[in-house]
Amino acid sequence: MSEFCLEISAANKSFPGVKALDKASFRLRKGSIHALLGENGAGKSTLIKIITGVHRQDSGTLFINGKEETLNNPNDATKFGISVVHQERNLIRRFSVGENLMLNNLPKTVLGLIDYDEIAIQSKKWLEIMDLDIDPNTVVSELTVAKMQLCEIAKALSLKAKILLLDEPTSSLSPKEAENLFSLLRKIVRDEGVSIVFVSHKLEEVFNICDDVTVLRDGQNACTSENIKNLDRKKLVRLMIGRDEQIVKSTRKTDKIKDTVLALNKVKTELGHENINLELARSEIMGLYGLVGAGRTELVKCLIGLEKIIEGDVIINGKKTAIDSPKSALEKFKIGYISEDRKKEGLILIHNVLDNTSITVWSQIKKAAGLVTDGMIANKVDPYIRKLEVKTPSNYQIISNLSGGNQQKISVAKWLAAGTDILIIDEPTVGIDIKTKAYLHELILNLADNGTSIILISSDMPEMISLADRIVVMKDFKVNGIVENDRDYDVVSSKIMEFIHS
Amino acid sequence: MNKKLPNFIFTNQFGLLFLVLIFIVIFSTVTDGFTSRFNIFALSRVIAIDIMIGLAMMVVILTGGLNLALGAIGVCAAMFGGWCMEVLGIPIVPALLLTLGMGSLLGLVNGIITVKTGVHSFIVTLATMSIYFGFMTMLTEAEAFRRLPDLFTDFGSAKLFNKYVSPLLLVSVATCFILFYLFRFTDIGRKLIAAGANPEAAEVSGISVSRMFIYCHALSGFLGALAAILLTTRIGAAIPSMAGQLGMDWLLPAFLAPVIGGTLLSGGKLSVFGTMLGAVLVTLLTNGLYLLDVGEFWIRFFLGIILLLAVLLDRAREYLTLKNVIVS
Amino acid sequence: MNMTVAAIFKKDWLGLLIVVLVSGLVIAAVKPAFLSPFNLYVLMVSTSYMLIIALAQMIIIAIGQMNLSVGAIGGLVAISFSGLMEVHQISVPVAVLSGLVIGIACGFLNGYITVKSGISAFIITLATLYIFKGINLGITEAEPFYNIPENVKNFGNAKIGNTPIPFLLIIPIIITILMWVFINRTETGRHMLAYGNSVQSAELMGISSSKVVITAHIISGFLAAIAGMLVVCRLQLGTPNIGDSWLLPSFAAPVIGGAILAGGKVDVIATALGVLIVAIISQALVIFKIDPFFVQIFLGVMILLAVFVNRYREYKQEVRRKIFSSE
What we know:
- The complex is a heterotrimer of chains A (502), B (328) and C (327).
- With 502 residues, chain A is an alpha/beta fold.
- Chain A folds into three domains: 4-241, P-loop containing nucleotide triphosphate hydrolases (Rossmann fold, 3-Layer(aba) Sandwich), CATH 3.40.50.300; 246-334 and 420-502, Rossmann fold (3-Layer(aba) Sandwich); 348-419, no CATH class.
- Chain A is 35% helix and 25% strand.
- Chain A is built from 18 helices and 20 strands.
- Chain A starts with a strand and ends with a helix.
- Helices cover 73% and strands 0% of the residues of chain B.
- The longest helix of chain B has 27 residues, at 209-235.
- Chain C is mainly alpha-helical and 327 residues long.
- Chain C has a single domain (12-325), classed as ABC transporter involved in vitamin B12 uptake, BtuC (Orthogonal Bundle), CATH 1.10.3470.
- Helix content of chain C is 75%, strand content 0%.
- At the A-B interface, α10, α11, α13 and α15 of A face α8 and α9 of B.
């Protein structure tokens, strides 16, 4: 019997235009918690999809408990005891907890009807393992996110899962809830014989709870099943990015930063922000740092008018204003927003490069009777497409055919073309290759140097410290603190972490 | 909108044209009377109205929605216009403007309800279809207006080009060109398309998506009223039942033309001339089958099959438009 | 399911029941004729087949889809049922069976194409609406079938003993009870609701999408068939336009009954009460001699209101949850 309950050996997987996995390997020891790390685009999600049966590898073998197996679909994976735990996504929120837990195996009475009493009894067992003291008849939608997640794990256990895959499990949890989750994970590994694949970008958690580590980089193994005791943060990061965390030497002259262009004064929003006080100066790059759920994207969405500000003032160039839509943000105040989710909010995938890049400028360039020709558009936006070195066979290429990096460039290009005074950039380099990432960083610095004020949202600490002049630390929809950035990584990052944990 | 050649939409329109020509050849040889002056003239009138109906639905499909109330709006507008002309004695041109205004207004209401409540346009227009039609029937007591000005009704029976073509067709084709210009060469047309393709992205990029969707619904009502005007001049009277109960007779041609023509049901991509060719194709087929003695009662069955095939094709088209999506 | 008093108060249908009782009493107070045996009889007759039609749509709404062809299926079965008996002298039981088979076949077609093509059921059933209606017209050539066997006609007219309760109502009541059991107490029913709530979650739990969708459509077609045949009994003819006016009411009742069109939330009892409300108001309009076309307007307005209210309630619940359940 193999000591590994799950093993993937030399897996290759390609998609049109990109090789996602290149002889990647992975070995999960029985009864261990194994971290799977890698920057976005490193092949992590592809590997996860192979483990869970969503994709099949082009070549390479998959072993479960030492035996070679083929997974054709997610149901096969479930049959072999592999379960993915998302957050609340896989529970039926209108059903009760008990019904959710037993949904594919509902106990029935003699007449063939569902026996709800039996559901309550049987589901209690799984709830107790997860220390959940809730009535099985509780409707899922009434639970907290943390409890929903624990129910999901309970469900996986009830399906006799022996391999649990947790994908960014703490992204919506408070630190207390996360600690609770971790102690439960340790418990089920110990008592229920479960092995866990733990995917997270939070390195502190990895060191907290994991036994082994596999790091993927550019589709290949940077390390395979390495014992965590042999690594420290610096080594781990180097494995992930292939180099030391690089802090771009700042060429920014701080005396460029003057007049306040944007100020938020005791702002309270519909989404739960309270007492937000911020100031943004011309040519300044202000970073908003925080864990997922801190409320950063939500705050900027309120700023551009997608959600409501219910109290407090927004002051732009000295005047109190109210912004009711991105349209007025752009047209009246020249504020732009490069959104976090470019596929959903940033780009129109079925349209071409030209149409996507020019969407912000049609009103600007139109002539009499609203005339806007392709030629007029090309004149306006071509310079930006070329400046950003977007790789595309033609301006009429459909955006969905471009690589992630080039798509991101287009979503930036359209705001450059619009000519903004204030540009909000939300997680600019997620899922982007390293070269494009460096390029975008340089671009952001240049923009600021040339007069644009930038609000930068990033969960990437090195990126933040490279770029931002000041870093606003947010937590639970409030501002916890502001750190002046002197580019000394250790000092600044620990100040930030202090604010996060206060 | 794409210019480049190896583009499916372009191929699609070319393919449609090809199909149209093939069917013309087939029906001309196989049937009697297909190419007769009488038949072609009649066809030109039906095609004119079907094109307009298809365009009216197309602009709502662009938003990813549907306008079930199209027929109801058309008939309501036409009855209003008939009332203006016959009862109030308003001259033709102002009366027609009022008709178009009424259509736009009813469409505007649909748009506002859809946008403000967030309810899908299917349900909204399902409801307004009955509300509009109900009010119209109540107010007119289901009586038709049959004594419309001669000049108006003469337009419907006028014959051009050696008696082959009705001027109605010219109106529709001209409308096609205007809409083509709108969507291809104006900022507002591009915004309408962007809003329909990805409302979230369009909103963030500075487009007022609510306003765009409301415009689409109002335009749909406008075009529906125009279609009803054409129908009224053809019949020579404004009759409450001219589009069937609740206006539902229009729904089949209204969907068929744009869908066959390459307008994606999911929104964000349309083809004006595709819709035009789609309407031509469907009308030709219907006419040809009728002349072949297929029996008028089976024609609806065939059209249903064609709609089914057309939507299957639409799906394939949507998939191909997004092909080679890079997995991240 | 909780049957405590407190739980009953939370149920959707309590509010509707109150509306039914109150409106019934108010109308009766103004026009006592409303409660006359004859009027109650007419009310129950129209409720009988509308109930089945509403349930036929409700089951599809439950899985998050729409069935535009309910009326067309009902109409096709109606003329097939009457046609078989008139033209081919088929006995009543066999004709009924054939009607049911046709309904099941139509439903299966809808479900199968929807599943295999991946296209929304709305569009598929829009097409099959014309296909079924086309077959209907093709067979009847717009002429009704007049010669319905006597016992069928009697069934359509009969009442239970001396009460105003029509025999016609028995089948719908049985079906309503069966549907309640199906949705709330059977595995397939719960799987359907799970699917309607979240396709992704349901599939990951091992629920077969195709099984759920096809079964739902088969049930819908089956119910539409029953409704069609009941109408034939009632009208004593098989006319080709049976089913033409079903679309609107088939949505109105479930929606008034609190159904969410996105799927996953339907209530059999509330839907039945919705049918009752529509029937009561329609009757009232006749009694008060209001223009019958007003029913159209009324239905449209009710649908808009109901959908709007349902969405608002869902939104409020979501907001409440967000505020109260984060630590």
